Amino acid sequence: MWQPSKLQVEDVSVHNSPGNPVDLADENSYITRSLSLDRNVESNTLPFILNAYSLWATRMLFDPHRIIEIGRTYVLRQYAASETSRWKLKLVSDFAWTAGGSTAYDLGGPSSFMIFQARMCQQFLTATCKHESRESLDQHTASDSFTFAHELFSMAFKHLPLSNILSLMQLAAPVFRCACPDSREELVHLPSLLLQHDLSLRYYSTFDIIISVITNRPMFFRYNTSFTPELPESRMYIQDYFGLQWFYGVPDRLVVTLARMNALREDYGDRLDERITRELELEIRSFRPVLGKSNEPTLIASRIVVQECWRQAAFIYLYMGLCGANSLDVRVRLVQATFMKLFQGVEPGRNPDVFLILPIAIVRLATHLAEEQSLIRRRMLNQPECSRYPTSGNDILKILNEIWTRPNFIEPVVWYDLRVACLRVTGM
């Protein structure tokens, strides 16, 4: 009988990468581990999986320390759940070990990810097709089918082009909706969803919202973004593993605002009412950065920069996407200048640059100066997520180049140009 209390996994520290100077060994001795035993031996399977998940977290997540305990508990629970869950954990850990160990891994090599992706896609199809209609798919079955979805989408974003990501999200959409606790006659309540335990549901909704912004496509779902007495706005600032800020660095409170903005754009285009514009300006201006726990000044500075850059990106989306301003509008120019001051004022490195790819995907529309374009392009190309083809980050860079290489005599950039550039690059 497998007993977690008897697990013996050797703890070691890791060498800090440039731009990520935090001493992980001091923060927590088991966040990243080194496996000295043969991983193909059955008794070593669980230690290897724990090592792989930890390595992925320290290399890929914005604030891995917020999920140390819950991540370990998640792996142990899934390992004990069933043979199928253990098999999925092994596939995920194979890819996580390769990608977490080096960002220069072979994109054509991780067959474990392709097998895992195929199994998850089949699972989504089975969940929706074995019933006569989507309405007959109960929440429990849908939730079981959606387990491991956050691994699928987070790894796909590192490994696949944007068009594949959008296709995966569309395939998973019916299962996601049925797995949500809300009544199917109502909109999914986003603040509640961001604060519940199911990481896959949190990931899908956040990704849905962000992908909609950076591609100028409608969200797969509308969300109820209102706060209630039972769930006040202050809950968005809790310092633990809830929400999803620890994953990509986008503040959870801002995700709620972006979801509201996406819906308003779908309803009103770029002719937003002035009163609502002022409300959104206040929301964006008022959210507070959540810094997490760290004694490392450089890391704290990076986290502040990432969240403040997201604030400026949200302002640009508001003015260009919802108010019809072009890239030379005085409000847009001021916000873009603030973004560049933040961007240039922080030391280049994997942290924060890899977490600035998504806000850059918004701010690029307002960036005209050749030297600023060159700086952004150079720092993005230093991240394998952007420099390697075919990946979503590389597609984001191509979309950026589509916008920046327009003939100089064409009028200033408008938000619709993002849709045109995205269509040219992704076909979607």
UniProtKB/TrEMBL annotation:
Q: Name one Pfam family in it.
A: Fungal_trans_2
Q: Which domain of life is it from?
A: Eukaryota
InterPro entries reported in the protein's UniProt record? Fun_TF
Q: What is this protein called?
A: Fungal-specific transcription factor domain protein
Q: Which organism is it from?
A: Rhizoctonia solani 123E
